[in-house]
Design brief:
Number of strands of chain A: 2
Largest sheet of chain B: 2 strands, antiparallel
Helix content of chain A: over 70%
Distance between the termini of chain A: 27 Å
Order of helices and strands of chain B: HHEEHHH
CATH architecture of the largest domain in chain B: Orthogonal Bundle
Strand order of the largest sheet of chain A: 1-2
Radius of gyration of chain A: 22 Å
Radius of gyration of chain B: 20 Å
Largest sheet of chain A: 2 strands, antiparallel
Structural class of chain A: mainly alpha
Number of helices of chain B: 5
Number of domains of chain B: 2
Distance between the termini of chain B: 59 Å
CATH superfamily of the largest domain in chain B: Cytochrome c-like domain
Structural class of chain B: mainly alpha
Mean pLDDT of chain B: 95
Oligomer: heterodimer
Number of helices of chain A: 17
Low-confidence stretches of chain A: 455-466
CATH class of the largest domain in chain B: Mainly Alpha
Order of helices and strands of chain A: HHHHHHHHHHEHHHHHHHE
Strand content of chain B: under 5%
Mean pLDDT of chain A: 94
Shape of chain A: globular
Number of strands of chain B: 2
Strand order of the largest sheet of chain B: 1-2
Strand content of chain A: under 5%
Helix content of chain B: 55-70%
């Protein structure tokens, strides 16, 4: 860590990890309610548990992106963050906004739109926080002598997602439910299949560059092409949400065509990453971060790309729309594309911040990686399989929804809960590891360096490949 | 491909796609107004009731929502006014009893009637095997 202001990333990442753990607790409760519908139903009805589960998801991912940005912007801009004080004020505003939202949802209130259940004062607080963030990061970038592609892509993504949040929140407030849903997708779809992809693409590029020691020019070579393809396919790919909601028929053609192409940039990212790994002349010492990063890139392609494209065409989607197939895809997509990326960044940032990149114990990190990733893969496959059963029995055969859910799907839902529990094992190990690395002393590193005679920087690319 | 070319494809390609999306959206919103029944003040109030009780985080509507409880797009034509009224007033477990006022219940049912009338391009498809 070269710049002291990078330290401001820590509270963001800490809160992100805490909320992630909390999100998983809520996930276990509502997962159990699929198996035992009466489980805790008076304390936390499914609708409330679900709302908090997905609100926490969005909030911790955004906090993770912000923390990651605050960490990489100083070395990218070769200067300190414009104002660390502002960054901390922003942190507390967002923390309080999160607390208000959690209390509001726990009390059983909602604004009644999925992902956007938060009350409007919370939305305003989030917008204020986002503006402070953009100003702070923007000023840092503007003052930097040399502008980089990573800065540009990152900022485009962050500005884009903020503008969409404001615009979407204004437009959804429509008396016509179909129009409300229409604009709602401008936030939800254009976030996860557009602007968020830009943010993680930029973060990935930076972390990969640092871990592998590959020259910037090579890393940035395909960055614009990748994000160009994300937008070229993803913007009109929004059409796959406009098949059935009262919208014109042409969306079936537009949405089907463009969303079928959405896996292309994600495949390019996978290919490009493996090219970089081959090209890399150094073996990164921080294997946990590198493994999480590679898994995130593959998870993005599999979860968001493949698991999405298999039910995106109207002829298939008419059967799968609104079934557990969507839930299966949603879990793997959010985990692979976003959660895993943020965890990868955490594993890159935290040891570097503590100055222990070359010495920290990675066994715990690797264990949590396997628990979480295998569990999530199987959970998603289980849900997708349940969705296919649901399509056959409910949608095609016409058996009632509740009968299907309470009989034919129960086995799958038990399996999902089991995978939820094994996922939690990984999360607990990750939280433990986060605290452990946070507390580790850079002194150990110094001693280690003296012992081994290595004085390499803590960038992570230490050992030279034979 | 040079760095600059890729950047230009990104900038101008994205702007082009965004332009097309804006254009199609203006057209779509107009089309939605034609494809949906008129929104009366009772329908609007019903949407507020739907949102107030966070129905979408259990049910789905036009296939969008939480997949935990049935899709209600065609509930009005399938079940009828009286059934829905009785069901919501005294729901079987695990659905909570929201103790809605008569006015809220009226508005919500009017909203469900409105949703039933949305032109959904044939969704949900009729089951291939009829009971």
């Amino acid at each position: 860590m070269k710049y002291s202001s990078q330290r401001v990333a820590y509270p963001y990442l800490l809160l992100a990890v805490a909320l992630f753990a909390l999100q998983i607790v809520l996930g276990l409760v509502i997962g159990a309610q699929y198996v035992w519908p009466d489980f805790l139903k008076d304390v936390l009805p499914f609708s409330q548990g679900k709302a908090i589960h997905i609100n926490l998801l969005v909030l911790w991912l955004l906090l993770g992106m912000m923390g990651a940005t605050y960490y990489i912007i100083p070395p990218e801009s070769k200067r300190e963050i414009h104002s660390t004080k502002l960054a901390m004020v922003q942190f507390w505003i967002l923390t309080i906004a999160g607390l208000i939202d959690a209390g509001y949802l726990m009390a059983g209130f909602s604004e009644g739109r999925k992902y956007l259940e938060a009350p409007w004062p919370v939305d305003i607080m989030i917008i204020i926080g986002a503006l402070m963030f953009l100003y702070n990061v923007g000023m840092t970038v503007l003052k930097s002598e040399k502008k980089t592609s990573i800065q540009a892509v990152l900022l485009t993504g962050l500005i884009g997602l903020s503008v969409l949040f404001v615009f979407g929140n204004v437009m959804v407030r429509n008396a016509n439910f179909s129009i409300d849903q229409y604009w709602w997708w401008w936030i939800v779809h254009l976030w996860v299949e557009g602007t968020w992809e830009l943010v993680v693409a930029a973060l990935t590029a930076y972390v990969l560059m640092r871990l592998t020691g590959i020259p910037r020019g090579h890393i940035e070579k395909y960055l614009y092409l990748e994000v160009a393809l994300v937008f070229l396919t993803g913007i009109l790919g929004i059409g796959h949400h406009y098949y059935w909601i009262g919208t014109p028929k042409y969306w079936m053609m537009v949405g089907g065509f463009f969303s079928a192409l959405e896996p292309v940039p994600l495949a390019l990212m996978v290919w490009n990453t493996f090219q970089h790994l081959k090209e890399s002349k150094t073996v990164p010492t921080n294997k946990v971060a590198l493994n999480w990063l590679v898994i995130a890139i593959i998870g993005n392609f599999v979860g968001a790309g493949l698991m999405g494209v298999v039910h995106t065409l109207p002829i298939i989607n008419q059967w799968t729309h609104g079934t557990q197939v969507t839930a299966g895809h949603g879990h793997m997509a959010f985990f692979g594309a976003y959660a895993a990326h943020i965890i990868a960044v955490v594993y890159f940032v935290l040891p570097e911040m503590r100055g222990v990149t070359n010495t920290f114990d990675q066994r715990s990190g690797m264990r949590s990686l396997w628990w979480m990733n295998l569990s999530m893969l199987f959970m998603s496959l289980t849900l997708m399989a349940a969705g296919v059963v649901q399509v056959y029995v409910e949608r095609i055969s016409g058996v009632s929804f509740m009968l299907v859910k309470n009989t034919y799907l129960t086995g799958w839902m038990i399996m999902r809960l089991v995978f939820g529990l094994t996922f939690t094992v990984g999360v607990l190990e990750f939280v433990y590891d986060f605290i452990r690395i946070s507390k580790s002393k850079p002194m150990e590193q110094t001693l280690q360096n003296i012992v081994t005679g290595s004085f390499s920087s803590s960038g992570g690319a230490a050992a030279t490949r034979r | 491909m040079t760095h600059g070319t890729a950047r230009n494809i990104f900038i101008f390609g994205s702007l082009l796609m965004l332009g097309i999306l804006v254009w199609l959206s203006i057209d779509s919103v107009k089309a939605i107004e034609k494809n949906t029944p008129p929104v009366t003040s009772k329908v609007e109030a019903g949407l507020k009731v739907w949102q107030k009780y966070n129905c979408i985080d259990c049910h789905t509507l036009i296939g969008n929502g939480a997949y935990f409880a049935p899709d209600l797009t065609k509930s009005y034509s399938k079940r009828g006014d009286a059934f829905l009224r009785a069901f919501i007033s005294n729901p079987p477990k695990p659905m909570p009893n929201f103790q809605m006022s008569d006015e809220e219940l009226d508005d919500l049912i009017d909203f469900l009637r409105w949703v039933d009338g949305v032109q959904t391009n044939g969704w949900p498809p009729k089951p291939l095997i009829q009971k």
